[in-house]
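User: Fold both of these, please.

Assistant: Here is the first one.
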Amino acid sequence: MSRRPSVRHQSPVAGAQARSRAAFRQAFLLVLLATALAVVVPLRAQEPAARVGAPQAPGAVHTVRQIPEACVRLEGSYAQAGAAAPYALQVVPLGGACQPRARYVGAEQAQPSAAAGWTLNDVVKIPEAACPGREAVVQVWRKSGADAPARDGQGQARIYLEQGRGQAAAGASRLPQYSAVLQAPQGACGN
């Protein structure tokens, strides 16, 4: 008796299942590779992109930025012709029942820089309406406090009543700090 080699035939259902398993395996490996890249490649801290505000007329007071954590608003205005300083920046406290969770410190006192532990939080450019091409630049810096609250699963920093009382008793120096640096426009209009 001679034996014939057996030929194995796959049913159409078995072939579809094999293709499905192969597609699942490829998709799984692709997700695994993407996850590994996300973990291995560190995200770099990038400098914030400068925001350009609306052009402002000389003498018009405008809000540059609000810092609700420190209960302050930064207001600026271009000077009228002939003034000593071409742009003025002032800090205005927010009214009402605002409870500060951070402190605002003047740039002269804080001297914010990356080397001193400050982080550049925002850059706002304010063009002058009467003089195209001229703009004031305000840099807002932030420095974390000594006891920055931990983030929960949703990425929110939550401070509960007893923790808040404890932090208040410890002093304001443990709170995060904000500061703003003004780079006044240079030259006369038309330069």
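And the second sequence with its predicted structure:
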Amino acid sequence: MLNQQLTIEGRIPDGDQTKAVVIEIAMGLIASISDHDGEPEELILPGFIDIHNHGAIGVDINAANADQLLKVSRFLATNGVTGWLPTIVPDSPENYRKAIEAIDAAMSAQPGEPIAQILGVHYEGVFANASMCGALHEEYFREFTSIDELHSLPLPASGIRMMTFAPEIKGGVALTRALVEERWIPSIGHTDADTAVLESAFSAGARHLTHFFNAMKGLHHRNLGVVGWALTKKNTTFDIIADGIHVHPSIIRLAVSSKGPGSVSLISDSIAPTGLGDGEYEVWGERISVANGRTSNSSGSIAGSVITIDDAFKNVRLLGFSLLETSQMTSRNPSRLLGLNDSVGTIEVGKRADLVVCNADLEIEKVFVGGRSL
């Protein structure tokens, strides 16, 4: 029941340490947080938010129906995710329409269910640079010629709308302005933009970058590239795939330390084989192999990941970041990016009781979504 009252005891991140607390939950919200006079071993974290997810357990977001999306939501919740953005790769208008209809139906069915809540939609790569396509199918890429191009993309009836795009394409800076005016979250990615274009996009309202380092121009000591620009540009943020494959762990540590943990979000960029193990799979109309946790398409390119945000959390903790810093990267920072920080992302009185309870080894024991456990 949504109005049930619960008490959870454990330790929450507090600076470089943890603090023992008692959390009271009522009506799905955190009603109070008080000091605990004992030494509970369980760790309590705010629910993880995944802003870049293409699917899992055999379900591909581009081809999923509502029931399959809810299946993914249940799987994600068992791995600590309490909110997520289904992420669509470039596809035909008909497949876009079907995908959004499924997202809409799933969002209508999810309220009150203890599963990861679908928060809206993330379009990745509709307006991307073909030279930085990665595993995306460039035959579906577009140029921005008018606002009609944006309006042609179907959207759920409610929720977040996010887009990864390359500002250097024809009409890219105008697209940035249109995204901001139409209340999208613009994110720079699959891009080879130079500094002048990046500055123009920033002035137009683009502040975030998608899967940092991947599918973008890297850093050179005589050429900032997209990576160098983002690391040295104030008021920019980025997300990063912390699977140890897309980006070397030491480079993750360097980038996060340089930018600051408060400006970084961890993403999964997971695809349909996530949770199924190594093997050969049909994804996005092609064969994708998974071997030792690394995805590869027919050309040998990495094609998304097979990790969860829980995996990313543990990987980044091993790089030396504190529980609080890592929690910011999996919860607070993505909630701020999505404009949801008033209701989720941190453990505070009045916020939705989206909580992950772990043991001392960071293994998940229980997950609460709106105060309801799985």
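The mean pLDDT is 96.
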